[in-house]
Protein 1
Amino acid sequence: PLTMASDSPESLMRLCTDYCLRNLEGTLCYLLDNQTLRLHPDIFLPSEICDKLVNEYVELVKTDSIFEPHESFFTLFSDPRSTRLARIHLREQIVQDQDLEAIRKQDLVELYLTNCEKLTAKSLQTLVSFSHTLISLSLFGCCNIFYEEENPGGCEDDCLVNPTRQVLVKDFTFEGFSRLRFLNLGRLMEGVNVESLLRPLASLAALDLSGIQLGDVGFLTQWKDTLVSLVLYNMDLSEEHIQAITQLHKLRHLDISRDHLSSYYKFKLTRRVLTLFVEHLANLSSLDISGHTMLENCTIPSMEEKMGQTSIEPAKSSIAPFRGLKRPLQFLGLFETSLCRLTHIPAYKVSGDKNEEQVLNAIEAYTEHRPEITSRAINLLFDIARIERCSQLLRALQLVITALKCHKDDKNIQVTGSAALFYLTNSEYRTEQSVRLRRQVIQVVLNGMEAYQEVTVQRNCCLTLCNFSIPEELEFQYRRVNELLLSILNQSRQDESIQRIAVHLCNALVCQVDNDHKEAVGKMGFVMTMLKLIQKKLADKTCDQVMEFSWSALWNITDETPDNCEMFLNYSGMKLFLECLKEFPEKQELHRNMLGLLGNVAEVRELRPQLMTAQFIGVFSNLLESKADGIEVSYNACGVLSHIMFDGPEAWSICEPQREEVVKRMWAAIQSWDINSRRNINYRSFEPILRLLPQGISPVSQHWATWALYNLVSVYSDKYCPLLIKEGGIPLLKDMIKMASARQETKEMA
């Protein structure tokens, strides 16, 4: 089943390719004079490997923000004696004229250039180098490839301002491209004479003229015996176009679809036109008429339409002209037409907006070259995922991921895609998703967050991340996700809801992770960012989730991480603590989080002198009597003081309050707690508590530590008994029982 297939690991080929591309210097190449990549002289690679290296490189540059492109990458493939290229797919800004120039000696069979806007007419000349071998060529969206720079004769005034201007190349044709069969000229710039450009091609099999307006397509009939696929998406048609198309009797795939929002089209589809297609194009197996308005009713009477089981048999077709088909079509594009809602449609695959299957077919068919249509189809999928249950979850997820990767810079797709991902990754679908698939989701979500500072995308992406187990599932992108969240929180103007989600995620990310992770995040400015948020909330006199989460995050990130504790003190953390305490005396959650954090600070011996002021000690002593959040605030205040007492009377550098008085209040507090209290705290290690046992300088600290251990192993024995044994607590307790300085009640508890 599909569920298992997607869990298989990446192929060894893919892993090796990826590794080599990320470590070119350490594997295939060396650096010449510290800047130019050169292939090691003993390396010889066949096209099966070179094609993958180039295509994967383009994919990495496009979808992985950490991956650094190399200026001289394409020069590695300049010599066919050591590296062979045959089939390559290049996209967008990644490719420039000099890159194609670098590989001109290769015998390319297939070259797809998609939306490569930086290519100019220089690359047209380079294409001629491949003319004797090229079978398949796409120049889709390469909108400058027919322009060259021309220096105006004689330097006039504007010579300095605009030394070059763009001129259209008129004399280029596909003369000499004797093997060329498949050609995509989609979105070609206006002014190029398509007819004379194509005339030299002897036997075209597939032609894509998407988005080009041609008044006369009669010249297409010169390939009536060879053309099997014709795409005229968004071309305004006329009766003459239809006449020419019906003469192309070998056609198997015909696409005359359009984006009904893009501009006004005079042409309307009629029953007669569809009938002509069926009668004249006997081999037709795929037809796309999406976005068309039907001038007349092509459907059979509704009584007959509703009868019987849904059928794809042409004889039962609800669309009358298709009753003449000899067999059902493999594909029928009916997206954004009324026909897709009929009962009997004679095709195995239909794109439309009637149900999940049709919508997924639309996303699949249009993602590559039609983002404007795809974003509307994904929007329909979003509604399905939100309101009903998706029955083809894996397919839906894969398609949305592909669309988001393919159109990283298309705002509409990023908005609708990120919203759909939120619903497709929520808990009810969890069991159907593999680790690999969920990682792909995380990658595209982070790409979206990086590329778009736009509120909707950021919110959707943050919400989607909340569907994952944190930190476990985000571990493989730990640094990147933290950097992104911190950059969101550091923006001067912030959306309240995004701020709340981002702080929640930050908190979850530093909870229960290794100390080196916490240190790394601390160095990114985590502590500073949280304190700034707290400062802002204080100024507004608001204690909301953001305030509580920020203190909670600081509590987590300072746990057993002295560097972060020091940062907290250096950035006026104690001042904020006192101000929050004063401003929000009733907020129990807040008090607990703040004191938990100060407990972490107090565990660091070098930092304790900074807590030794009359003001701080007075505040901690008063909090011993607090009943906030059960025993938690009182317990944490006592913990802070226990570490301070452990430094002995000579470290007590203040006159008021006196050490003995505070000790007395600590004993009273501990005796007032219920030993069976359920706790709102999570210990990863007992080390900071255990170090208070083998000492005689502060019996009250010893007692607090023993009480803490006794409470935790009694109430949560399954979790904490093994931890106590593992960390060597038993011999420490036994030794303490023999100590003369320990109090009797402490020994009994031990």
Protein 2
Amino acid sequence: TTFQDGGEEVEDGAVYNVTLKKVQIQQAANKGARWLGGEGDQLPPEHTVRQYETSKIRAIKAGTLEKLVENLLTAFGDADFSYISIFLATYRAFASPRAVLELLLDRFGNLETSSHGEVANLNSLESEMVLRAEIASVLRAWLDQCSEDFREPPDYTCLLKLLDYLKNNMPNSDMESRVQNLLKQFQNQEVEAVDGFCSTSSTDLVDGEELEISNPEEFSSFQDHVVAEQLTYMDVMLFRRVVPYHCLGSIWSQRDKKENKNLAPTVRATITQFNAVTKCVISTILGTRELKIQQRAKIIEKWIHIAHECRILKNFSSLRAIISALQSNSIYRLKTTWMCVSKDILLMYEELSEIFSDHDNYLTSRELLMKEATSKFANLDSSEKENQKKSQKRLQLQKNKGVMQGTVPYLGTFLTDLIMLDTALQDYVEGGLINFEKRRREFEVIAQIKLLQSSCNSYCLIPDQKFIQWFRRQRHLTEEESYKLSREAEAAADTNILSPKSQKSMVKRISTLFLGTDVFTPPKEQSLKSSPVGGSSGESTDSASVSSCEFNHSETEDVCVTPVSSPEDPLKKISGYPLSSCSPDSSMSTPSSGVSSKGSIFDAGSGQDSGSVPTRDSGSVPGSVPRALPVYNRQSEGSCIIRVSMDGLHASVYKSILITNQDRIPDVTQRALLKHNLEPDAVEDYELVQVISEDKELVFPRDANVFYGMNSHVNFDFILRKKA
């Protein structure tokens, strides 16, 4: 089959795109081959005769409303087989159901008279039967695909008009009985609250219940996979109810007008549910002031596990809601709490976050969504072996149940696409004709939504009323409340003082994390302080200490290494993940000052390791360690320490910052701003440059990798300068 562009055809009130389709309809043996007894498909081309047929495909490009409705009856004849579905999915952008129905039935569907003449030869019985079949086909498709168009309580004007037409023109037909049943269904159906699962208003609660802040113990009693399944159950119920035309840009973009407060209720319901999940995450983490650091960290870990379970269930809506909550300002700033989240779970969190990276217009999430839209199970790939094992184990349990899973998308991606299309393409073209090419483009997005809605029928989830009631009862914090509680939680963590026993256990854990397992805790009398080496000036230190915060029960229960200084210290990153960076803020250095902090295992000295921890292999020889630790002026093991000073201040006034081979300019700039007590959101207003010599500087591109881009043959001295 070959296709050829046939140009355009213009009629009164319509413009058509024409495509010529050439199809081989027969291949037979020629005269000589038949005499030899050969078959056409077994002979070489020179012994066969091929017959082709060329057909014309007309697809309406633009037209008046009358022409677009008329085209519903002639589309099959023009070989435009998708036209009816496209029209029904998008016509609400330019017409009402009543206007379309009146044109279809009164103007083109009148079988008793041919006075209008739009369809030729209506007097003949054959033409009447053809028209009857065409009308029935369109009406059947309308009821199948968009029955909600006829839900107009309490009068149901369109449905009654359709029923009257069928009684007069197609009495006792299946169509008539179907419309009667639909009318009864609408009339008997109670008004359903589309957002019944996610509303937190008092009217949705059982008598005697009140909104409450989450009880951590009650939340912890729900298993991770149960929470994910119930969130998925609620999301599925809402997503399946979404009316596709509610998502059209021309409709959804009008939602903020006062007269449109009830516009697109099915889309509003999914957004309400998304926000409810996000606020539930925040309230469970911040809602209880009495929580200790480890308890708060455990709740964060639990939500990350729940997000992972949502990924296994292919529920991208709740997955994104949870990730968004954890990335919110009030949760992200809990640096001390994040320090106590285990590294494996942080790796899992990072991988889940990457799904919704905004790189290339969210290309990762789009590709993943289309890849898994109709697949039976999630395709889980993890760069971390332990997470990969857990994922495959959970996935295997799902497969063993033998029940396929659907896919719940993050609806916001489609809404954005449709608004962009509505903005970019005109509604009308020259001559005031409706631009139907725009509707074809919109239908490409609508079709994806419909495909995913049909896939949701594969889910087999049972509601857990205990969890749903708990979820409904949650009192959501306002942004002001959550930020205030976040500041209180961080301030309380900063004032937490370690006992000597806890400090000792921390040093042991820090040593294990940095140097491997073959280490032992330094003796009590051994000081971890470092003095300047070789007569060089002392340096203020950013002690990149790391703690796992997974204490033995015999140790102090609620102890974690915490920053001694301002809660605004940035999270240090090792291998690209926020780890425990329990360090005092770097202060102004002077030639006589040598500053180190108790509990840190190294200081950023002048190019030399200090405060090394002795090992079994190396004995107690200072400076002999199996792995090089990050120091100033030397890159080792994918990390190093740089000095950053502000432009206009003396070079001796600097802040020491640990960077890794994963850090890029925006990350380092933001941490430098925080260190210098400047607004971290002003990253775009500053540039980071490396001082090469008195008259030379190295300027970095915006997204450059600092570790690999810097000049390692000169001092690791940087300047933070405001852009001109």
